[in-house]
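Exam revision sheet. Question 4 asks you to relate a sequence to its structure. Input first:
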Amino acid sequence: MLVHGAWHSSAQWAHTQRALAELGASSVAVDLPGHGLAAPLPSGYLDGDQPRLDTEPSALAGLSLNECAETILSTLRAVRRHRNVVLVAHSAGGAPASLAAELAPELVDRMVYLSAFCPAGRPRFIDYLDAPEQTDTARGRALSVGDAAALGAIRINPLSRDPEYVEELRLTHYTDTPAEEFDRWRLALSPDLPIAIPSTPVALTRQRWGRIPRTFIRCAADLASTPAMQDLMIAEADSAVPDNPFTVRSMPGGHSPFAARPTELATVLAR
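Answer key, C-alpha coordinates:
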Protein backbone atom coordinates (compact mmCIF):
# COMPACT_ATOMS: atom_id res chain seq x y z
CA MET A 1 0.00 0.00 0.00
CA LEU A 2 1.55 3.22 -1.24
CA VAL A 3 1.09 6.61 0.47
CA HIS A 4 2.28 9.71 -1.37
CA GLY A 5 3.98 12.77 0.08
CA ALA A 6 3.23 16.48 0.02
CA TRP A 7 1.43 17.85 -3.08
CA HIS A 8 1.50 14.43 -4.75
CA SER A 9 -1.17 11.80 -5.34
CA SER A 10 -1.71 8.14 -6.10
CA ALA A 11 -0.92 8.86 -9.76
CA GLN A 12 2.79 9.36 -9.16
CA TRP A 13 3.10 5.72 -8.07
CA ALA A 14 1.90 4.34 -11.44
CA HIS A 15 5.32 3.43 -12.87
CA THR A 16 6.32 1.76 -9.62
CA GLN A 17 3.06 -0.18 -9.50
CA ARG A 18 3.61 -1.53 -13.00
CA ALA A 19 7.11 -2.63 -12.00
CA LEU A 20 5.73 -4.25 -8.84
CA ALA A 21 3.15 -6.14 -10.89
CA GLU A 22 5.91 -7.51 -13.11
CA LEU A 23 7.57 -8.82 -9.93
CA GLY A 24 4.34 -10.50 -8.81
CA ALA A 25 3.40 -8.00 -6.09
CA SER A 26 -0.07 -6.50 -5.98
CA SER A 27 -0.35 -2.90 -4.83
CA VAL A 28 -2.79 -0.11 -4.11
CA ALA A 29 -2.04 3.62 -3.97
CA VAL A 30 -4.22 6.07 -2.06
CA ASP A 31 -5.01 9.75 -2.36
CA LEU A 32 -4.80 11.52 0.96
CA PRO A 33 -7.57 14.09 1.57
CA GLY A 34 -6.96 17.27 -0.37
CA HIS A 35 -4.72 15.59 -2.94
CA GLY A 36 -5.24 14.01 -6.34
CA LEU A 37 -7.91 14.88 -8.89
CA ALA A 38 -10.27 16.04 -6.14
CA ALA A 39 -7.77 18.48 -4.63
CA PRO A 40 -9.38 21.91 -4.14
CA LEU A 41 -7.54 24.73 -5.88
CA PRO A 42 -7.26 28.39 -4.87
CA SER A 43 -9.57 30.53 -6.99
CA GLY A 44 -7.71 31.82 -10.01
CA TYR A 45 -4.97 29.19 -9.66
CA LEU A 46 -5.47 28.11 -13.27
CA ASP A 47 -5.49 31.71 -14.54
CA GLY A 48 -2.36 33.21 -15.99
CA ASP A 49 -1.88 35.86 -13.32
CA GLN A 50 -3.02 33.63 -10.43
CA PRO A 51 -4.70 36.35 -8.33
CA ARG A 52 -4.78 35.85 -4.54
CA LEU A 53 -2.54 32.79 -4.71
CA ASP A 54 -0.43 34.10 -1.83
CA THR A 55 -3.37 35.33 0.30
CA GLU A 56 -6.45 33.14 -0.19
CA PRO A 57 -6.89 30.70 2.71
CA SER A 58 -6.73 27.06 1.72
CA ALA A 59 -9.88 24.96 1.58
CA LEU A 60 -7.80 22.36 3.46
CA ALA A 61 -7.04 24.59 6.45
CA GLY A 62 -9.36 22.66 8.76
CA LEU A 63 -8.30 19.18 7.67
CA SER A 64 -6.93 17.06 10.52
CA LEU A 65 -4.15 14.51 10.56
CA ASN A 66 -6.64 11.98 11.94
CA GLU A 67 -8.77 12.36 8.80
CA CYS A 68 -5.71 11.62 6.69
CA ALA A 69 -4.87 8.58 8.82
CA GLU A 70 -8.45 7.30 8.51
CA THR A 71 -8.12 7.29 4.72
CA ILE A 72 -5.14 4.98 5.11
CA LEU A 73 -6.88 2.82 7.69
CA SER A 74 -9.94 2.27 5.53
CA THR A 75 -7.76 0.90 2.74
CA LEU A 76 -5.65 -1.17 5.12
CA ARG A 77 -8.82 -2.82 6.42
CA ALA A 78 -9.84 -3.64 2.86
CA VAL A 79 -6.51 -5.32 2.00
CA ARG A 80 -5.94 -7.10 5.31
CA ARG A 81 -6.93 -10.39 3.66
CA HIS A 82 -3.56 -10.43 1.89
CA ARG A 83 -0.79 -12.52 3.40
CA ASN A 84 1.76 -9.76 3.76
CA VAL A 85 0.67 -6.10 3.91
CA VAL A 86 3.49 -3.58 3.52
CA LEU A 87 2.64 0.05 4.22
CA VAL A 88 4.93 2.38 2.24
CA ALA A 89 5.05 6.10 2.95
CA HIS A 90 6.93 8.76 1.05
CA SER A 91 8.12 12.04 2.56
CA ALA A 92 5.36 13.89 4.46
CA GLY A 93 3.13 10.82 4.04
CA GLY A 94 5.07 9.36 6.95
CA ALA A 95 2.96 11.42 9.37
CA PRO A 96 -0.51 9.96 8.59
CA ALA A 97 0.96 6.53 7.83
CA SER A 98 2.71 6.39 11.22
CA LEU A 99 -0.47 7.48 12.99
CA ALA A 100 -2.49 4.83 11.14
CA ALA A 101 0.03 2.16 12.14
CA GLU A 102 -0.07 3.29 15.77
CA LEU A 103 -3.87 3.14 15.79
CA ALA A 104 -4.10 -0.31 14.16
CA PRO A 105 -0.75 -2.14 14.16
CA GLU A 106 -2.54 -5.42 13.49
CA LEU A 107 -3.25 -4.23 9.94
CA VAL A 108 0.41 -3.78 8.97
CA ASP A 109 3.06 -6.49 8.57
CA ARG A 110 5.88 -4.10 7.68
CA MET A 111 6.32 -0.36 7.33
CA VAL A 112 8.58 1.22 4.74
CA TYR A 113 9.67 4.85 5.02
CA LEU A 114 10.82 6.15 1.65
CA SER A 115 12.80 9.23 2.68
CA ALA A 116 9.74 9.76 4.87
CA PHE A 117 9.01 11.49 8.16
CA CYS A 118 9.29 9.10 11.08
CA PRO A 119 7.98 10.70 14.31
CA ALA A 120 9.50 8.23 16.77
CA GLY A 121 12.10 10.71 17.97
CA ARG A 122 10.37 14.06 17.40
CA PRO A 123 6.57 14.14 17.14
CA ARG A 124 6.16 16.77 14.40
CA PHE A 125 7.63 16.76 10.91
CA ILE A 126 8.43 20.44 11.28
CA ASP A 127 10.69 19.59 14.23
CA TYR A 128 12.96 17.75 11.80
CA LEU A 129 12.60 20.29 9.01
CA ASP A 130 14.01 22.93 11.36
CA ALA A 131 16.94 20.76 12.50
CA PRO A 132 20.47 21.78 11.40
CA GLU A 133 20.84 18.41 9.66
CA GLN A 134 18.13 19.61 7.28
CA THR A 135 18.54 23.36 7.08
CA ASP A 136 22.28 23.32 6.38
CA THR A 137 22.01 21.76 2.92
CA ALA A 138 18.34 21.36 1.93
CA ARG A 139 16.78 23.20 -0.96
CA GLY A 140 13.19 24.31 -1.43
CA ARG A 141 12.55 26.95 1.21
CA ALA A 142 12.00 29.52 -1.53
CA LEU A 143 9.17 27.43 -2.99
CA SER A 144 6.55 28.35 -0.35
CA VAL A 145 3.93 30.88 -1.43
CA GLY A 146 2.33 33.17 1.18
CA ASP A 147 2.18 32.70 4.95
CA ALA A 148 1.48 29.05 5.77
CA ALA A 149 -0.16 29.87 9.11
CA ALA A 150 -2.55 32.35 7.48
CA LEU A 151 -3.29 30.07 4.52
CA GLY A 152 -3.72 26.94 6.64
CA ALA A 153 -1.49 25.09 4.20
CA ILE A 154 2.04 24.99 2.87
CA ARG A 155 1.40 26.23 -0.65
CA ILE A 156 3.59 25.88 -3.71
CA ASN A 157 2.97 26.93 -7.30
CA PRO A 158 3.52 24.03 -9.71
CA LEU A 159 2.06 26.16 -12.53
CA SER A 160 4.57 28.96 -12.07
CA ARG A 161 5.78 30.64 -15.25
CA ASP A 162 9.03 31.68 -13.59
CA PRO A 163 11.75 29.39 -14.99
CA GLU A 164 13.94 29.88 -11.91
CA TYR A 165 11.09 28.78 -9.62
CA VAL A 166 10.36 25.76 -11.82
CA GLU A 167 14.01 24.74 -11.81
CA GLU A 168 14.18 25.08 -8.01
CA LEU A 169 11.13 22.82 -7.74
CA ARG A 170 12.81 20.27 -10.00
CA LEU A 171 16.14 20.38 -8.19
CA THR A 172 14.46 20.03 -4.80
CA HIS A 173 11.99 17.23 -5.45
CA TYR A 174 13.00 15.68 -8.79
CA THR A 175 16.77 16.13 -8.67
CA ASP A 176 17.60 13.37 -11.14
CA THR A 177 14.57 13.71 -13.40
CA PRO A 178 15.58 15.35 -16.70
CA ALA A 179 14.23 18.87 -17.16
CA GLU A 180 12.45 17.86 -20.37
CA GLU A 181 10.45 15.24 -18.44
CA PHE A 182 9.84 17.29 -15.31
CA ASP A 183 6.94 19.33 -16.69
CA ARG A 184 4.82 16.18 -16.86
CA TRP A 185 5.48 15.53 -13.18
CA ARG A 186 5.07 19.06 -11.83
CA LEU A 187 1.78 19.66 -13.65
CA ALA A 188 0.33 16.69 -11.75
CA LEU A 189 1.12 18.28 -8.37
CA SER A 190 -1.51 20.07 -6.28
CA PRO A 191 -0.62 23.39 -4.62
CA ASP A 192 -1.65 22.88 -0.99
CA LEU A 193 -0.32 20.61 1.76
CA PRO A 194 -2.69 20.83 4.77
CA ILE A 195 -0.72 22.41 7.57
CA ALA A 196 -1.91 19.68 9.94
CA ILE A 197 0.31 17.11 8.23
CA PRO A 198 3.69 18.65 9.13
CA SER A 199 2.60 20.38 12.33
CA THR A 200 0.39 17.90 14.24
CA PRO A 201 2.27 15.83 16.85
CA VAL A 202 2.21 12.06 16.36
CA ALA A 203 2.63 10.04 19.53
CA LEU A 204 4.07 6.59 18.84
CA THR A 205 4.37 3.79 21.40
CA ARG A 206 6.74 0.86 21.59
CA GLN A 207 3.81 -1.46 22.24
CA ARG A 208 1.91 -0.59 19.05
CA TRP A 209 3.84 1.17 16.27
CA GLY A 210 7.10 -0.03 17.78
CA ARG A 211 6.28 -3.71 17.30
CA ILE A 212 5.93 -3.45 13.50
CA PRO A 213 9.02 -4.45 11.48
CA ARG A 214 10.18 -1.44 9.51
CA THR A 215 12.51 -0.48 6.70
CA PHE A 216 13.91 2.93 5.82
CA ILE A 217 14.79 3.52 2.18
CA ARG A 218 17.41 6.22 2.29
CA CYS A 219 17.74 8.47 -0.78
CA ALA A 220 21.45 9.25 -0.93
CA ALA A 221 21.32 12.51 -2.92
CA ASP A 222 18.06 13.88 -1.59
CA LEU A 223 17.85 17.69 -1.55
CA ALA A 224 14.31 17.88 -0.09
CA SER A 225 14.89 15.58 2.90
CA THR A 226 18.64 15.54 3.30
CA PRO A 227 20.54 12.30 3.95
CA ALA A 228 21.65 13.80 7.28
CA MET A 229 18.05 14.34 8.32
CA GLN A 230 17.09 10.86 7.18
CA ASP A 231 19.94 9.44 9.28
CA LEU A 232 18.80 11.53 12.25
CA MET A 233 15.28 10.12 12.05
CA ILE A 234 16.59 6.58 11.74
CA ALA A 235 18.91 6.99 14.73
CA GLU A 236 16.26 8.55 16.94
CA ALA A 237 13.69 5.91 16.03
CA ASP A 238 16.18 3.14 16.79
CA SER A 239 16.95 4.79 20.11
CA ALA A 240 13.24 4.94 20.96
CA VAL A 241 12.65 1.28 20.01
CA PRO A 242 16.08 -0.39 20.33
CA ASP A 243 14.70 -3.93 20.24
CA ASN A 244 13.18 -3.36 16.77
CA PRO A 245 15.59 -1.20 14.77
CA PHE A 246 15.17 -0.08 11.18
CA THR A 247 16.45 -2.18 8.32
CA VAL A 248 18.10 0.46 6.15
CA ARG A 249 18.36 0.31 2.37
CA SER A 250 20.03 3.03 0.33
CA MET A 251 19.14 4.15 -3.17
CA PRO A 252 21.10 6.57 -5.33
CA GLY A 253 19.53 9.81 -6.41
CA GLY A 254 17.03 12.30 -5.11
CA HIS A 255 13.72 12.58 -3.34
CA SER A 256 11.46 10.98 -5.95
CA PRO A 257 12.75 7.56 -7.08
CA PHE A 258 9.23 6.69 -8.27
CA ALA A 259 9.96 9.14 -11.10
CA ALA A 260 13.67 8.60 -11.72
CA ARG A 261 14.11 4.86 -11.07
CA PRO A 262 10.74 3.13 -10.49
CA THR A 263 11.97 -0.35 -11.44
CA GLU A 264 14.80 -0.18 -8.93
CA LEU A 265 12.41 1.11 -6.29
CA ALA A 266 9.95 -1.70 -7.00
CA THR A 267 12.73 -4.27 -6.65
CA VAL A 268 13.67 -2.90 -3.22
CA LEU A 269 10.02 -2.90 -2.13
CA ALA A 270 9.37 -6.42 -3.42
CA ARG A 271 12.19 -7.78 -1.27
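Marking note for examiners. Residues 65-79 form the longest helix (15 residues).
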